[in-house]
Write a structure and sequence with these properties.
Blueprint: H1 3-6, H2 26-41, H3 50-60, H4 64-68, E1 72-80, E2 83-84, E3 91-93, E4 98-107, E5 112-118, E6 123-124, E7 132-133, H5 136-153, E8 161-165, H6 167-176, E9 180-184, E10 188-192, E11 197-201, E12 204-208, H7 210-218, H8 231-251, H9 256-266, H10 273-284, E13 292-296, E14 299-301, E15 308-310, H11 315-321
Parallel strand pairs: 1-8, 5-13
Antiparallel strand pairs: 1-4, 2-3, 4-5, 6-7, 9-12, 10-11, 14-15
Helix pairs in contact: 2-8, 2-9, 2-10, 3-10, 6-7
């Protein structure tokens, strides 16, 4: 790789808030929500290549440990939007910076799912590269370099698989199930013509199509800069969407085969049909919300910049609280979300 390819992108002195940093847990919600719901409708499916694997695993009582040949699997989920020219009429890059990064660990032995998100502005230094925001590594070297960057800042974590998702897939799946009924806690409006993003949602219970649902979970503040949400409030919206997606799939099981097939396509074939079936049944079998946790790694703001640094002092504790690393008795630690 040439030395120029290793240099950090030039910094702009003007603050620019990219709409892609609104992603939050969007892609994780999509991935986990599908797993939750498909486990519940597995018995109804009859039109997907995954159905044979589901039936076989149920009949033979095949465990996830046997399917994955391990007691757990840790997945890095990258949320990458297309990079658009101003006005959204021309695609400059199909795969740009990974403006959402989420680590999810499926612990088959202890029946737990733990996740942490990594803020896009977290700084990372890999050998041979300039120190830069962690979301730049996917644009420089693809998913494998992004994986290396995550393992650099989370030395206790070993990534087994990488899944790359995008907004188009999210919208398509929500439309595929017929949209979702969600309560909008406040008026939400935001316009960014450069990203072809238009959010206009009114307070109250609404039926949202795929594009509107995408706006519901991406929204951070209104175009005026007022009325923004805290991280806690955004996470609650993300969880509400997850539960709505699960409920819709359970009551609209006819679309299950299409959603199953889309699940494999969305993940870039990171998982085969046997593994998708196994993950779906595993997550569906979890008997309480305490066994599924969503958090964020601890970071500190670097004074005078828009960059973040990992809080090394708190990191080990947070990874254990959110069950992203093995813990002897994780439930005894209590649920940090409550």
């Amino acid at each position: 790789m040439s030395s120029s390819a290793k240099k950090a992108p030039s910094k702009s002195k003007k603050k620019h808030t990219s709409p892609r940093q609104f992603v939050g847990g969007l892609f994780y919600i999509l991935f986990l929500g599908i797993c939750l719901a498909l486990g519940g409708i597995a018995g109804w499916l009859s039109q997907s290549s995954i159905i044979t694997d589901t039936i076989r695993q149920k009949i033979t009582n095949t465990t996830p440990q046997k399917v994955f040949r391990d007691d757990s699997i840790t997945v890095l989920i990258l949320g990458c939007d297309k990079e658009l020219y101003y006005g959204g009429k021309q695609v400059l890059k199909q795969h740009a910076r990974s403006d959402m990064m989420m680590v999810a660990r499926f612990d088959f032995e202890r029946k737990l799912v733990g996740t942490v998100s990594i803020p896009r502005d977290t700084l990372c230094k890999l050998p041979g590269y300039d120190r830069q925001k962690i979301n730049a590594y996917n644009a420089i070297g693809g998913p494998e370099l992004a994986k290396a960057a995550v393992e650099e800042i989370l030395p206790e974590v070993k990534i087994d698989r990488v899944v790359t998702l995008n907004f188009d897939a999210f919208i398509e799946i929500i439309d595929m199930v017929g949209g979702l009924d969600l309560y909008i806690p406040r008026d939400m409006n935001y316009t960014d013509k450069a990203a072809n993003l238009y959010i206009d949602l009114k307070k109250g219970r609404q039926h949202l199509d795929g594009y509107q649902a995408m706006g519901y979970v991406r929204w951070r503040k209104n175009s005026t800069g007022r009325g923004g949400d805290s991280d806690f409030e955004r996470q609650k919206r993300q969880k509400d969407l997850l539960l709505a997606l699960k409920s819709k799939l359970l009551t609209n099981w006819q679309v299950g085969p299409k959603v199953l097939q889309k699940t494999i396509e969305v993940g870039g074939n990171s998982f085969d049909s046997e593994e998708v079936a196994s993950l779906a049944m595993f997550v569906q079998s979890l008997d309480s919300n305490e066994r599924i946790r969503m958090g964020q790694i601890p970071v500190n703001e670097i004074e005078g910049t828009y960059n973040l640094s990992v809080d090394r002092r708190l990191l080990p504790q947070v990874l254990r609280q959110y069950m992203v690393v093995p813990v002897d008795d994780p439930l005894a630690m209590g649920n940090p979300d409550e």
